[in-house]
């Protein structure tokens, strides 16, 4: 490129030869000068113009090429799994207050970077978490009409299984053939995902169905996760793009932290609004993990939801509720999160609320305490109950006395409850004052 700025009279060897011969021209008899010198000037002029023209057209393409290459999108290395992608979702629709959010899909402990224009459309799960992926706004709007009934004809959809434990007395192949016979490991290519043994590949001749099987081994045993991607024929290019992103797929340990095990704790009130009607706990977790996780990380944050009162779960749509939230995501800021499908308003609570959410018996004053059921125990607690789907306990325990049925038998009662003078806060702990079993 430097040659473009060099005087063409130096760079052109033919031209230099003319310069050298010019003094010789002075020796030509005067009779010939009348014709030769103008002719020589003409030749010099033509050669100069030709050289400039040649230099411009020779070097100009390299300038254009260099400019284009500098503006090309950087390709993410395929040998760096679990590397977050520095791209953001639509700041207006998905994030009206401008929080920096990475366009990484989170589902069932899976991190999958998506192209920056793609958006997930969540549906009520059947057996697996099913998510439609839209590359345009019109495609997203189509999913609104057909996604919930799963009868879309123009689509790219993912089905992500939970962690399935391989039976101790079975090989992986035997387990797969019995539990998920539709997945044939022999038809897939051996690979790895985030350092874990995996298999991946197309499973049909048209290359419209792609499967990834991930094997994870830890102290609790061997687990597998299956991710199936399926596209309609006119979305084959989208599927090809998805397959490229699987090279950066990452896995997180499904968080099993208890509140008492969290090293940092922050308390929030969150309110969800969505037209999507569901009582599926896995979908609720997927939505929260997608929209509240910190941008640019695949961190395995813990989100513990709490309700108020005796019931530990809402009895209707999980995505149209307010919850208390305890989390170790110290980067979570108050504001609005989500998409046009699910909106989440996040409000910070006073720091001391983290203590209430961590310990159901924590209190600071007497009116913090009440008699209620906390999972399978009837006792003195604050009003914040960890969110859970319906559970069964059998006869509950009476705090301080033991199994309900045994206490009833010991006191010759058909039914028994705890009698007390009051429920008070003693040393930051909810307690019954003078409790005793009482026959109903």
Task: Give the gist of this structure.
The protein is an alpha+beta fold. 25% of the residues lie in helices and 28% in strands. The protein has nine helices and 25 strands.
What does this structure look like?
The protein is an alpha+beta fold and 440 residues long. It has 4 domains: 2-71; 104-251, Protein Transport Mog1p, Chain A, CATH 3.40.1000.10; 259-355; 359-439, no CATH class. Helix content is 25%, strand content 28%. It has helices at 8-11, 13-25, 30-71, 137-146, 172-179, 236-245, 281-292, 353-358, 404-410, and strands spanning 104-107, 110-113, 119-122, 129-134, 156-160, 164-165, 189-193, 196-202, 209-218, 221-231, 250-251, 266-273, 303-308, 322-327, 335-338, 343-348, 370-374, 377-381, 384-386, 397-398, 402-403, 416-419, 422-426, 429-433, 436-439. Strands 3, 4, 5, 6, 7, 8, 9 and 10 form an 8-stranded antiparallel β-sheet that branches. Strands 15-16-12-14-13-19 form a 6-stranded antiparallel β-sheet. A 4-stranded mixed β-sheet has the order 17-18-20-21. Strand 1 and strand 2 (110-113) form a beta hairpin.
């Amino acid at each position: 490129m430097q040659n473009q700025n060099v005087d063409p009279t130096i760079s052109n060897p033919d031209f230099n030869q003319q310069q050298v011969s010019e003094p010789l021209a002075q020796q030509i008899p005067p009779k010939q000068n009348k014709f030769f010198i103008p002719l020589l000037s003409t030749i010099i002029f033509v050669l100069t113009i030709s050289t400039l023209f040649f230099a411009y057209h020779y070097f100009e393409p390299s300038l254009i090429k260099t400019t284009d290459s500098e503006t090309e999108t950087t390709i993410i290395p395929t040998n760096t799994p679990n590397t977050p992608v520095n791209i953001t979702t639509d700041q207006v629709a998905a994030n009206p207050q401008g929080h920096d959010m990475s366009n990484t899909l989170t589902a069932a402990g899976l991190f999958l970077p998506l192209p920056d224009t793609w958006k997930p459309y969540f549906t009520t799960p059947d057996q697996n978490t099913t998510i439609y992926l839209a590359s345009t706004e019109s495609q997203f709007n189509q999913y609104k009409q057909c996604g919930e009934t799963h009868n879309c004809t123009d689509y790219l959809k993912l089905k992500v299984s939970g962690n399935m434990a391989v039976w101790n007395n079975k090989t992986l192949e035997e387990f797969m053939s019995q539990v998920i016979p539709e997945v044939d490991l022999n038809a897939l290519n051996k690979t790895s995902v985030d350092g874990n043994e995996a298999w991946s590949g197309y499973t049909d001749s048209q290359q419209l169905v792609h499967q990834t099987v991930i094997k994870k081994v830890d102290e609790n045993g061997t687990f597998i996760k299956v991710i199936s991607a399926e596209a309609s024929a006119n979305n084959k290019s989208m599927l090809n793009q998805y397959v490229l992103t699987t090279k950066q797929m990452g896995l997180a340990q499904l968080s099993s932290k208890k509140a008492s095990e969290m090293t940092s704790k922050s308390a929030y009130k969150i309110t969800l609004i969505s037209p999507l009607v569901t009582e599926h706990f896995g979908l609720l977790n997927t939505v929260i993990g997608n929209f509240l996780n910190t941008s640019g990380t695949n961190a395995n944050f813990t989100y513990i939801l709490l309700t108020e009162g005796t019931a530990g779960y809402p009895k209707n749509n999980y995505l149209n509720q307010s919850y208390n939230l305890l989390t170790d995501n110290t980067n979570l800021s108050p504001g609005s999160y989500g998409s046009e499908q699910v909106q989440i308003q996040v409000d910070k609570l006073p720091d001391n609320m983290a203590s209430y959410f961590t310990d159901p018996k924590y209190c600071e004053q007497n009116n913090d305490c009440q008699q209620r059921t906390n999972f399978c125990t009837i006792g003195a607690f604050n009003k914040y109950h960890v969110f859970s789907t319906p559970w069964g306990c059998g006869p509950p325990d009476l705090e301080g006395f033991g199994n309900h049925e045994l206490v009833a038998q010991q006191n010759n009662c058909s039914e028994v409850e705890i009698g007390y003078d009051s429920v008070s806060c003693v040393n930051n702990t909810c307690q019954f004052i003078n409790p005793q079993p009482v026959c109903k």
